[in-house]
Amino acid sequence: MLLARELLRLGELYRQGGRALQGQECFRESCLLRQQLLGERHPDTRAGRAALAAALRDAGQLHEARQQYELLLEHCLAGVGPAHPETLAARSGLAATLARLDEFAPALALHDEVIALCERQYGPGHIVTLDALAGQARTLAHRGEYSRARMLYERVLEGRQRVLGTEHEDTLRCTQQLATLLRDMGDLGNARKLQENVVRVRERQAGIEATVTLQAREALAEIFAARGDLGAVRDMQQSLATARARRLGSDHPDTPGILLRLASTLSQQGELEEARRLQQHVVNLHERLRGMDDHETLRSKQMLAQTLSSQGHSLAARRLEQSVEEGGSRLRQLRAMSSGLHDMAGAGFAAPLAGGRPPAPRGTREPGGAPSTSVPGGTDPLEHKLGQLHKLVEGGRAREARVLADSLRESILRPTVARPLRRRGVALIKQVYLDDGDKDALLAFAEDEVAALEGALIEAAGGRPLAMR
Known about the structure:
- The structure is a single chain.
- The chain is mainly alpha-helical.
- It has a domain at 1-79: Serine Threonine Protein Phosphatase 5, Tetratricopeptide repeat.
- The chain has 22 helices and no strands.
- It has helices at residues 2-16, 20-38, 43-58, 62-79, 85-100, 104-122, 127-143, 146-164, 169-185, 188-206, 211-227, 230-248, 255-268, 272-289, 295-310, 314-339, 344-347, 350-353, 381-394, 398-412, 419-436, 439-460.
- It starts with a helix and ends in a 9-residue tail after the last helix.
- The model is unreliable at 337-379 and 463-469 (pLDDT under 50).
């Protein structure tokens, strides 16, 4: 039993340190030991299973997470009854997992059960009830029912402010969730006010360079980007880049990402030489830290090639593109040898590098308009690749999912893509970046999405610039 307990603690330390796979294995071994020694329905076994189920869900292994949560719920109902906090937590975990699987009807039914039990047992304003409402709000937001989600988040925020105070961690988390929802709804003024308040509290409580503060400032930058305020985005990104380099060091893996984001903003503002300088710096960092053929190295080279092409350095751009193509080919071969030849054609660099062209600029249509529609079986190629991406996410193949998601970023935002397909693709790509914990990539994609929408609106307006409000 001592080993099982220590494995559980070690798994939690791994999880907190961002080493999800190692944490998951510790949780699995701890759960198995307790199951063998104590039986399926012992409280310690249930605790181990709960930790394992949550780790699997966070890692994107949703079907296995669902199985673990269903077992956990069955054992909780038999052991402690339907209204016990442990059972309520199991129901909530299962609901969140079903929502990630896009099974919204059963997920919302579970949320309704939890909320009804909490209101009856604890009262409508109790913190446990508020937590249950927050879970339902997240599912509604994921489903796209923004208005209902907003009402619930506002209720949760008011309740947490009253019970816990305005600067409690749970209150701040809800404030940021509501700000993000308002951003997605287009209520950018209120989103900005809420997020700026979170940033101020984080800076005062944790310091301007604490991780939670940097994350809050990144969320604020997303709102500025959605407003089209590139000057504010640039200032925020410069500040974040300086803070990350000072806190983590210029060689830390998290530092190059914000530099690429800043370079993208500079490029949009027409400062191509400064963008090129930053991108070259990141390429050098990636080559030294990750190697010549690493996915992130190739991606940063691809961005640099696009900037060089925009500056008129066609020969240098083409040489760099050729280097990326060769590196992508070597990476695909290496992955094929290590993991078997499964879906490699759709998971590598072939799609974004076909024809030797860099990705199309934001908000523009690539030559030739709509993508080709000839793939085996007559399926639309983009829909086919989204199907592959969904399978990779469902199967917990995070690295392959990330490669494919990056390759689909440009094509999914083309104006010729049907709206339902675009919504599905955008949601899948965002999910990959969320699962990967890459807020920089998530912010970049959000900005691309806004730029594409702006381009479509300008085109619809007959080429007239849009009035910024």
